[in-house]
Amino acid sequence: MEDPAMSERELTTLLSLMNQRQACLSSACKEIADWIDRQGDVPAAGKIRASLKALEADEAQVRKTLTSLTLDRPLPKFRS
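Request: output the structure for the sequence above.
Response:
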C-alpha cells in the first residue's frame, strides 16, 4: 500500500502554488472593489477590502512557512 503522506518537496510545491493563486485572487478582488467603488457603492467595496485584510495579514506567516520548508537542511556531520 502506498504511503499517502506528501513529501516535503510536494508540500512546498503545493503551498507555493496555493500562495501564488491566492495572490492572483486578491489582486482580482482589489480590482473589483475599485470598480465597485467607482460605481458608487462604497459600502460594498469596503466589505471586499475588509475581507482582503485577513488574507494580507496571513501573507507574512505563509511566506515564513514556505521559506522554512525550502531551506536546505544541513549536511550530517561525520566522525573523523
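The radius of gyration is 20 Å.
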